[in-house]
Amino acid sequence: MTSAMTNATLRYAHLKSRHCSAVLEISDHEAPLWRYWGPRLPEGALPDFSLRAARATPTFSLEEDVPLSLFPTFGVGWFGSSALLAHRQGQDFAQAMTGCEVIWQKQDHALRVRMADSVASLEVEIDLGLDPETDTLTVSTKLTNTGSGILDVQWLAAAVLPLPSQARQVRSYTGRHNSEFVMQETALGRGIWRRENRRGLTSHDAFPGAVTSAPAADAHSGLSYGAQLAWSGNHAQLIEWLEDGRYQWQLGEWLAPGEVRLGPGESLQTPEVLSTCSLAGLNGVAAGFHKAIRSRLNWPGAEMSPRPVGLNTWEGVYFDLKPTALFEMATAAADAGIERFVLDDGWFQGRRSDRAGLGDWWTDLSVFPEGLGPLAKHVNDLGMDFGLWVEPEMINPDSELFRAHPDWALQIADRPLLTARNQLVLDLTRPEVSAYLLNKIGALLDALPIAYLKWDHNRDLTTAGSLGRPAYRRQTQAAYALMDQIRQGWPKVEIEACAGGGGRIDAGVLQHTHRVWTSDCIDAVSRVAIQRGFLQFFPPEVMGAHVGASPAHSTGRSQSMNFRAAVALPGHFGVELDLRQLSFAESETLKGWITLYKALRDQLHHGQVWLGEGDDSLLWQAHGQAEDLLIFVYRLGPMTQKWPSNLRLPMVDEDKVYRVEEVRARPSLNAAAAKVFDDYRSEGVVLHGAWLAHQGLPLPSRKAETCQIYRVRTLDRLS
Ligand code: GLA
């Protein structure tokens, strides 16, 4: 029975991917109604009655039922949060779409909904795409002022997503400098859950995304949804309970008062929201996000090259830069197998500490009398790439640039300039400022063989005014534009996004850069949690992960070289310490890990990631495919059980037989003390997939702050 036979006016738009469906009910005179977003529905599964046909009018209610739409707006029957808050000098404060057309751009997978409000004189275009391979639902919104006066916009949701009543739990991420991706779980009630960020960049404390799931869902199974805003500026998201038991999830830019005032014919285009749903729990959501981010990364040469092992000078020598020492560090790095040498902060004019110099982007000849050329050549001659730290968006009041152009800092007349880390933020929205930066960084890129820029941003935005108007969103757009200009001019250069570690980690910046510095905290115990939060949204190859010194500078805790290296191994691996200070034994151990990383990076950086928890506080993660997995088993605290529980591996193929081997950077002398554990280290142990999935992998007892790595491969993969 087709819908046309029973209900001539019922029209659906059904977006489909391999595992997901999104269904809108379309009419010509209102915004499309959300009917469904969830696991893939087969052909013929859509009911032949409209949403309103199954909703009687409750007491004390409007006769005109206004259910959740793709663009619910305030004032004409919708009582929930509005996708738009706008007015025209106090008028046109209420909006409702009066016309709607749907334009398919890719049948079944991508469409544009074009709507108009003929009363408030607005046009709204919403692009939705459901990627057949990644299951990612991508949504963005464009608002155009078709009236004659100025339209003041306070909020425009980039996406309004429907969540079913089961999605009652939200995992969101908070934190601070040195402690990013602190996960918090909140039960959704009858009200609004809301997170906002007004710091002007993505922020350490409010990640612009979340994961929601049914209470019965876990890491590996159950209905789960995720969404993240691809944007590096201010943002807001809310999840609101609706009176029909569903929730709406809105994400978008947080706009400062007066920030968006659209003149006649002008438009506001939102960033994109990436969202996904899965019946495979939190790991299913992560898999969708990883595929989506991978498909959007824009690599030099179009394809990711193996992620080189880096040496970053920061925690090794901080501002104490001396050419002789740096030459020695580079030699030691090459000897250890390192492939990229990154000269961090302190190399440019007047930068002897964090009190001066930002803005003066030329080499300080009092430190490098012959410039950086000889060091870069030495690095290249040793077979390594040369990378350089910059912080283009910043200026120290104590700099030649500020003395020449004090007006170039973001500011508000008669307000004090508030410094953080002794610095102010440059107004990139002024063309002459961006041109200055392009010129200065371009001169460095022309003069030196720079393969990599570490692009930092070490403070929040305050008094972010430009010519009297809020400049937040334009500042973010200008930073993206500057990155793009650099990439166009010097297409082989890779960029790392850093903001005091993880202050600018989002899917937006990753369209302009190639990795992020996950956290300034390199303490391996802290890093386990930070990286697990990160991996919920982003793939491991863009996760900067370094082996730092012991004790860790950020926490004072000490960990073994093996543990530090094992925690960094799955990411984009690097070293951030003074190699010259290591003992012979430590340096040999580190070399072993560098060799191991090179052998495993292909599998680590192309596969799926599963995160899990074992008994007795064990944490684990698996990388690869079901037939060939690398399992990292992290024990952070001491055991409380006498024998460890087995580790069940839910992702293996239950029809296949596997061989389990322990992977080690170097053979170690300590005995495993039981036959199976010795066998893991020699010929391997054969176990059936069904056994691994349901009974689990036997594990040896281990002390706190240790990691075991196992390779679990099907026998046919071994031959
Ligand atoms: C920030 C970064 C560090 C380092 C310093 C240099 O804190 O996160 O990695 O580059 O700046 O000043």
Which descriptors apply to this entry?
alpha+beta, 719 residues, 14 helices, binds alpha-D-galactopyranose
Structural description of this entry:
With 719 residues, this protein is of the alpha+beta class. Helices cover 20% and strands 30% of the residues. The chain has 14 helices and 37 strands. The strands form 7 sheets. Strands 5, 6, 7, 8, 10, 11, 13, 14, 18 and 19 form a 10-stranded antiparallel β-sheet that branches. The protein has an 8-stranded parallel beta barrel with strand order 20-21-22-25-28-29-30-31, surrounded by 5 helices. It is globular. The two termini are 53 Å apart. The relative contact order is 0.08. Alpha-D-galactopyranose binds at residues 314, 344-345, 389, 456, 458, 498, 500-501, 517, 520. The site of alpha-D-galactopyranose (GLA) has 11 residues, from loops.
Write the layout of secondary structure elements.
Blueprint: H1 3-6, E1 11-16, E2 20-26, E3 33-39, E4 84-87, E5 99-106, E6 110-117, E7 122-130, E8 136-145, E9 151-163, E10 169-176, E11 179-187, E12 192-197, E13 209-213, E14 224-229, E15 235-241, E16 247-252, E17 260-262, E18 267-269, E19 273-278, H2 281-296, E20 310-312, H3 314-317, H4 323-336, E21 340-343, H5 373-381, E22 385-390, E23 394-395, H6 400-404, E24 424-425, H7 431-447, E25 450-455, E26 465-466, E27 469-470, H8 472-489, E28 494-497, E29 515-517, H9 524-535, E30 543-548, H10 561-568, E31 572-576, H11 584-604, E32 608-613, E33 618-625, E34 628-635, E35 657-663, H12 675-681, E36 685-688, H13 689-694, E37 706-714, H14 715-718
The structure holds alpha-D-galactopyranose.
